[in-house]
Amino acid sequence: MAETRLDTDTVIDIQDLYKSFGDLHVLRGVNLKINKGENVVVLGRSGTGKSVLIKIIAGLLRQDKGMCKVLGSEVSTLNENELRDLRLKIGFSFQNSALYDSMTVRENLEFPLVRNVANLSRAEINEQVEYVLDAVGLLQTINQVPSELSGGQRKRIGIARTLILKPEIMLYDEPTAGLDPITCLEINELINEVKEKYHTTSIIITHDLTCARTTGDRIAMLLDGIFLKQGTFEEVFDTNEERIKSFYDYNFIQ
Amino acid sequence: MSAKQKEHVYTKKIDSALLAVYNGYSFFIRFFREAFRGRMEFQEIVKQCYAIGNKSLLLIGMTGFITGMVFTKQSRPSLAEFGATSWLPSLVAIAIVRALAALVTALISAGKIGSSIGAELGSMRVTEQIDAMEVSAVNPFKFLVVTRVLASTISIPILMFYCTLVSLMGAFLNVYLNEGTSFIAFFENAFEQITFLDVGTSVAKAVAYGFTIGIVGCYQGYNANKGTEGVGKAANSAVVISMFLIFIEEVIIVQVSNYFRI
């Protein structure tokens, strides 16, 4: 497991957060504090609001009630420009990679870079694109289009696209979903490498216990819209709470 | 179903219809807000113009040519009854310039371009590509919607001129084969009756149709949901709604231009 940093600066502060979609109450009073340099894994079954939580953090969704402060700013009260500035510090790796189908890998990576960093020369753009591609080990795919890539490669390119803006916070939505066990391990390693190399604070949304154990400094167990338990992997699963035990057993059987 | 249940169903339908109108209006207003601020994506506009023109050129050319030829053929017997077949070039030109070219171009483009924009943006929405742009601090509305709407507003009038020309060529072929009229005589006769108002009205129509096709396609695609089913629905709605609006605009613009004609 990755080593926990002792820096206590709070990067993400979520208090009493509620979110519903019609009659479906997804988050029912979530509390979570994440310190600088920490990798926090949010574990939970499908449909428990894990992705909703990080979408609120990234400002893609707005909470019904409660507070969600990222780098000291309440996300829901930010205006367009402030939200844009905050998003420059957040990298979001989507569950299905969300690569732009009509662009090559190079264009996918250049897209956020040229629109957010002014006055870059062609040589500087190329250098930065090649650097992040090299960091995820896929420099050879630079001229390919997303449809020519495997699931694991797409995930890596998705991560590379977020890294190009050198984010302070990384949000990973199901980084290992739909991948074979070996590729899962490679992605887990990459998440740890990103933390080491870019000094990021991360939230990793998953229901994969191997991913949680490998990448998480802290595990937060989201069940029925609240965090049932938080702590190290061992602390969370050393419990008599039936719902947590059944989640662990199910993963183990799988 | 009891009267109260029926009332509830109708209220819900009215609510959702009003909400759809409000959302459409907000999207329309947002387009103008975003179009005139910040950096303009010229490269993407040119790319979209090329894609729209390239996609429709052959189809519009063929349809325009056939329309011109068939319209001339169908009009001949009526004029022949009065011994006025020499008026054919003028009649056909008026019909093509005032109505047919703009309408044919718009209807074909609504099917080809509107559905393509709706499906493309819809698919980007359901695969979270639009969200990915947003979280990487890029304005997806400006990059995807503004560029496509502007491209279709610019391209449709150009395609309309092309359709006019090709339709007149179709008409000329028919007149030449039947009456042996020369190329110069045909076009001299054809343009004799065309006024600046006719051309201006056609351009106004084409601009309005182009904007409608672009904005409706983008609205449907940008707001698509429910996975692949939503993508299909977005493409379908983009075609149906833009065709419907095109006919409404046709009626309004014709009324306005007739006011000036008098």
From TrEMBL, chain A:
<keyword id="KW-0067">ATP-binding</keyword>
<dbReference type="InterPro" id="IPR003439">
    <property type="entry name" value="ABC_transporter-like_ATP-bd"/>
</dbReference>
<dbReference type="InterPro" id="IPR017871">
    <property type="entry name" value="ABC_transporter-like_CS"/>
</dbReference>
<dbReference type="InterPro" id="IPR027417">
    <property type="entry name" value="P-loop_NTPase"/>
</dbReference>
<keyword id="KW-0813">Transport</keyword>
<dbReference type="InterPro" id="IPR003593">
    <property type="entry name" value="AAA+_ATPase"/>
</dbReference>
<feature type="domain" description="ABC transporter">
    <location>
        <begin position="12"/>
        <end position="249"/>
    </location>
</feature>
<keyword id="KW-0547">Nucleotide-binding</keyword>
<protein>
    <submittedName>
        <fullName>ATP-binding cassette domain-containing protein</fullName>
    </submittedName>
</protein>
<dbReference type="GO" id="GO:0016887">
    <property type="term" value="F:ATP hydrolysis activity"/>
</dbReference>
<dbReference type="GO" id="GO:0005524">
    <property type="term" value="F:ATP binding"/>
</dbReference>
<dbReference type="Pfam" id="PF00005">
    <property type="entry name" value="ABC_tran"/>
</dbReference>
UniProtKB/TrEMBL annotation, chain B:
<keyword id="KW-1133">Transmembrane helix</keyword>
<feature type="transmembrane region" description="Helical">
    <location>
        <begin position="149"/>
        <end position="173"/>
    </location>
</feature>
<dbReference type="GO" id="GO:0043190">
    <property type="term" value="C:ATP-binding cassette (ABC) transporter complex"/>
</dbReference>
<dbReference type="InterPro" id="IPR030802">
    <property type="entry name" value="Permease_MalE"/>
</dbReference>
<feature type="transmembrane region" description="Helical">
    <location>
        <begin position="238"/>
        <end position="260"/>
    </location>
</feature>
<dbReference type="GO" id="GO:0005548">
    <property type="term" value="F:phospholipid transporter activity"/>
</dbReference>
<dbReference type="Pfam" id="PF02405">
    <property type="entry name" value="MlaE"/>
</dbReference>
<keyword id="KW-0472">Membrane</keyword>
<keyword id="KW-0812">Transmembrane</keyword>
<feature type="transmembrane region" description="Helical">
    <location>
        <begin position="52"/>
        <end position="71"/>
    </location>
</feature>
<protein>
    <submittedName>
        <fullName>ABC transporter permease</fullName>
    </submittedName>
</protein>
<feature type="transmembrane region" description="Helical">
    <location>
        <begin position="91"/>
        <end position="110"/>
    </location>
</feature>
